[in-house]
Amino acid sequence: MHSQGPGRPSTVFAYAAMIFLLLPLLAVVPVSFTSKRYLSMPEGNWSLRHYQELIEGPEWLGSIWTSFSIGLAAAALSTFLAILFSVGIWYRQSALTRPLVALVLLPMAVPPIISALVLYFFETRTSLYDTLGGVVVAHTVMAVPYAVVTLMVALSQVDRRLELASRNMGASLWQTTVWIVLPNIKFGILSAAFLSFILSWEEISVTLFVTSTEIITLPRRIWSGLRENIDPVIAAISVLLIVVTMAAVAVKLAVEGRSPLRRA
Amino acid sequence: MDRRKVLEWTVFVAPLPVLLAVSYLLPLLGLFHWSVTEPSPGLGNYVRILVDPDIHAIMGRTLRICLLATVVSVMVAYLLAYHWVFGPLWRRRFIEICVLIPFWISVLIRAFGWLIVLRPKGLINDGLMAAHLISEPLTLVRNDLGVVIGMVHFMIPFAIFPIVSVMRQIDPRIPAAARGMGAGPIRRFVEVFLPLSMPGVIGAFFIVFVFTLGFFITPSILGGGRVVMLAEYIFTQMSQTADWGLGSALSVVLLLFVSAMIWLLSKLTRVETLIG
């Protein structure tokens, strides 16, 4: 079977599946160039008016900026906390390690709707509700398990004798961390930060619960647009996001030199 | 460890668990508490879940749609994983592009894309009408079909990773041996390759099923308020009806069900093999 490779009927189905995966992303492109006010195919009348609206309307630019700054802050916070935690765990295993790791990974296993409720209850009781800081904290909680997993994988490939050598030569734990451990996991750190940024940038379930009128992230604005009247501006912003995402993934693959499929 | 070392270790390890204990674990326990205290102390909310036919209908629909979406996602993912592992190089590259790009793109944009394709004046209906194959637009969205399509599209990448991981660990000499002993391609697949790849299929099934149960963005956009599933129902209980007791109790039920599924997965297959 393997020497021959997959047969013809199964190849046809595989291509159909690939078209299925790309179809909704490709369909957005022509709609974003329509000259009409409502969602439609351009039908010969191509126009950039919806892109213009995107650039000129203060709401969309404001939301892009809000999401971008929240994403940077959440990525920085979650990467920093994840580094401390996973390096600490890597230095010394204890009876506490397993329950602590389970606690840290909890938000990854719990359904998003429940995480949203949990963070809503937390933020309404700490006056973080509907504030910039509140969204950063909520996004950090949601992204940090992925950052920890990424860093633990990176650390599992570091030679433990490096730490012992550094400690034997009199370096403190902080010196060892900064000069020995962190340089050895720098790609893991970049990866964790990238993943945290993307998770925050796209986060919607939790954001719906912890914001109301003050903080409108980009996904939240898209969500309202989709629920009320569907404006072709959403198609324009979708095309921009698809292009940016493709570029970011290309950079990520170039930096790491492998895709999650190949690692699998 | 002497005291100074313990202190150093604590400075590293403590901050993240402390943050999560305060912001996540405590309110999660609070959810259990509210489910038996709001609006009045007792098991009233759970009794309501047991007897209310509307809630049963929502749970039945959730299970039906999630199971269907899971089975279809895993089948398509199996096909793509098979081609990814055994297909020619350029096909593998193309599959990678088709899987990874949607994987990284926002769930909202993916749902929006399906809206454009499936709605009454969308790509598919316009195409079929122009070809005179139909005279009335088909209802492809704001119903179960639209929700299942959107969910399958979202879940395929998540299902491919564990299946690819297990398929790559299969020793190619085993199917080759079956071939040497005279088994035809169908028999080699059904009796040798499929059973060997089952841990990946089981893993993918549970991962996708658990994920679909709790997610509400795709169902609320593609269901358009007509296909209300458990997560969206909890959302409305909390944000519109303000029935926190019932919303909390339903969350607890969902959480217990999901935990049972994850436990079952850990019993059925070794989780490490799925990560590879």
Automatic annotation (TrEMBL), chain A:
Q: Which residues form the ABC transmembrane type-1 domain?
A: 64-252
Key words of the record: Cell inner membrane, Cell membrane, Membrane, Transmembrane, Transmembrane helix, Transport
What's the protein's topology in the membrane?
Multi-pass membrane protein
> Keyword Magnesium on this protein?
no
PROSITE patterns per the UniProt record, alphabetical: ABC_TM1
Please classify the protein's predominant subcellular localization into one broad category: membrane
Compartments it resides in: Cell inner membrane; Cell membrane
Where do the TM regions start and end? 12-33, 68-91, 100-122, 134-155, 176-199, 233-255
- InterPro entries membership: MetI-like, MetI-like_sf
Give the family per the record: Belongs to the binding-protein-dependent transport system permease family.
Could you identify this protein by its name? Spermidine/putrescine transport system permease protein
From TrEMBL, chain B:
Principal location class: membrane
Asked whether the UniProt record includes Transmembrane helix among its keywords, one would answer: yes
Q: Where is this gene product found?
A: Cell membrane
How is this protein situated with respect to the membrane? Multi-pass membrane protein
The UniProt keywords, alphabetically, are: Cell membrane, Membrane, Transmembrane, Transmembrane helix, Transport
Give the residue spans that cross the bilayer. 12-34, 62-82, 94-117, 145-168, 189-217, 244-265
Under the heading SUPFAM superfamilies, the entry gives: MetI-like
Segments forming domain ABC transmembrane type-1: 59-265
Supply the PANTHER family for this chain: ABC TRANSPORTER PERMEASE PROTEIN, INNER MEMBRANE ABC TRANSPORTER PERMEASE PROTEIN YDCU-RELATED-RELATED
The UniProt similarity line reads: Belongs to the binding-protein-dependent transport system permease family. CysTW subfamily.
- Specify the protein name: Spermidine/putrescine transport system permease protein
Organism of origin is Labrys monachus
Q: What taxonomic classification does the UniProt entry list for its organism?
A: Bacteria, Pseudomonadati, Pseudomonadota, Alphaproteobacteria, Hyphomicrobiales
